[in-house]
Amino acid sequence: MLHVSWWKTALIWFVVLLSVLLAAPNLLGERALSSFPAWWAHRKIELGLDLRGGSHLLLKIERGDVEKDRLESIVGDIATRLRTVNVAYSGLTGTGRKIQLRINDPAQVQPALTALQPLTSGPDKPSVVLSQGDNGALTLDITDADINSHVSTAIARAMKVIHARITQLGVGEPLIRRQGSDRIVVQVPDLADAQRLKNLLGQPAKLSFRLIDQSMSVQDAMDKQPPAGSDVLFSEDDPPVGYLVQRQPLLSNIDFSDAVAVVDNQKGEGTVSVKLTPEATHRFAQSTASNLGRIIVVVLDDQVISAASLKTVIATGEIDVPGDFTAQGAQDLSVMVKSGPLPATLTTVEERTIQPGLGGETARYGLIACIAAAVFVAALMIGFYRLLGIIATISLVINMIMVAALMGLLGITLTLPGVAAIVLIIGIGLDALVLIYERVREEEKKTHLLVDALRHGFNRAAATVADANLTVLIVAAILFYASTGAVRGFAATLMAGVVTTFFTSCFVTRSLVNMWISRRKPRTLLVGVRSGIFDNANIRFMGIRRYTFTVSAALSVVTLIAFATVGMHLGIDFAGGSIIEVRAKQGVADPVDIQTRLDAVIPGDVRVERLADRLGAVIRVHAQEGGENAEQSAVSLVQDELGKDYNFARVEVVGPAVSGEITATASLAVLAALAAILIYIWVRFEWQFAVGAIIATLHDVILTLGLFVLSGMEFNMTSIAAILTIVGYSLNDTVVVYDRMRENLKRYSQMPLPILIDASINQTLSRTILTSATTLLALLALYIFGGEVIRAFTFVLLFGVAVGTFSSIYIAAPVLILFKLRPDKFQTGGESNGPAAGNIQSGKPAV
Fold first, then answer.
1. Where would you tag: which of 329, 393, 592, 688 has the fewest CB atoms within 10 A of its CB?
2. What are the φ/ψ torsions at residue 571 (nearest 5 degrees)?
3. What is the H or E stretch that residue 233 is in?
């Protein structure tokens, strides 16, 4: 037996059983889960919007609105404070963040400063910085700290209002979280009408009832200057009608306790009725009684939506808001009034929407791909390792269960790239098992005792598995920190998988093998194992290193030249713009007709490509001049032009601010990953190993970029995820080879380095071939069955795995020779100090 203590075995299987318990909710429907405790039912993995359907918006609070409100508030506060202490002043004006006034009597300057002291030296940070001029002139500048504080407060208030508005729509529970200092992420599952969502969340919804100012005509107010306390506002008519209205409202949002929409679905019309608070009811009755015959207007966000003459006293406390509303418009207005006004305008800077039906179809493709990958890999393992392959398959199933349990426990959302991460986890998990099994076979040839071989094999392979998986974990963690949305789901899933892979391969598999030995008591490794086809390999890899190095260098240089001259097809994540997928309501999509119609209404470049099923098309609208609002306007134009003939299955919009940030973040993520790997390998090995790993990794990254240049595939944030995944996988492979080299360097200090490297690569060749084969099979299943959306991503991974395997042998290894790694540094008195004199498995390289 492998001498695993009973308490360790009990702990291992307790974790497995707990994982089964936590993962079980994913197999049950909502109705079945409702009868179980909430703490257990809520462990079900949530699907991302790309698999479930819904809308994702990134909203930016307009800082200018906050500054404007703050300016008006402080100006009013200054006036109140000076009046309270009877200080006469003049010229109180404010522009931007600067307020100016003059104290009429210079003798009253000091009392004025004393009255304004709470503004200039608050308990936390001063709201304004005050400076004195000549003849009683005072200037107050609103501080950055004050604006930042009120932006933060506005964000918190906006999040509450957003939640209240979305909740009233009766859709799935929204995810609302703050991002950065002035942005809010909103995700609403099962809601594909992003336009309605944007309308609901983009309007401050400041509703007020105001009287018309009859002191002058609207034209005179526009030509000269409106009276103090009045503004010129316009209606939403075409052409708009101007009104001179009093600034002080009779009623505002604070006076409304409720709002109800009455809808006539047959006519498509609706009305909105608001209910007043008791205090507002009494006040409004008095106001209407004293202003009978005057015109009252209803203002929504500084736009007049209706005007009517006051004919009777309104004392009921309920008011029908006059205006021509559609059924949906009435419902939305009632929602906004009930939830209260936003503290500032919210601008949509990023939008990603997918129809629920399309998301469900994508989820089915992903599930089929995962099953196919597992079947392919299991068949290969069983074919090579027979009973040990069955044990590996059981370990793989447990690994997937633990991934599901950990994702549910930590609240990790499963996205479409996350499905690719699961497929990759299958490959990485079996890589660890192949590594262990091959090490066991080597140890058996030395000891000829299976139990000892298993014990030494598991123990010695564990460090290599840990090193290999840690490199992937580092890359995934950096990607998680640097990304958002679906790509972050990919990174989180991959991190969970790395943890469970190490546990299942090093502990669960060992426990399963121990059970087999306890019952069957075999004396030798199963005869059916067929993975030793490369045992007698004596390939002189380093003999052709100059040729492979030259070819790789030439390809890298050509790629860099093509990258600099031809460039890549940047997606909207980096270039900004919009991607819209449409589906024909009848017949097939006509890309020529779509192109012609959109060229007439959309400024700039528009490209239309028909999908493989001919029923749909993908429209790419390049970045628009004019910022985020221009991007949203372009999408609205597309929807207006094609809405009668096409359904909109997917909409993605990225504004210029977000695309610039994504570009910077992605670049830093790649550099940070390379730096972290350099440091890690340097610490674990020697600096020559670290340099070799980085050069090999750069080789893989450059050639992968060349694939994008050559093929013209769109390069987006998902492509960054693919590149970092390739980096992690390539380093995984490189670390395994390096680990064997380091072991041999400790044992054969006098052996020429090229011969020792060849021996090390030949020793791990079976593992390299089997690992690459299993990973490529898993990715091939994803490529075939995963659907159109993820096919390009999978193709890049397939290319990267192949290139990564090549670079681990022909780039990472020769660099050690180039930098003259000294074998004597590793000498610790190993088994042999002499040159090769026998078979490698007995302690001497097979070269």
1. 592
2. -80, 180
3. strand 230-235
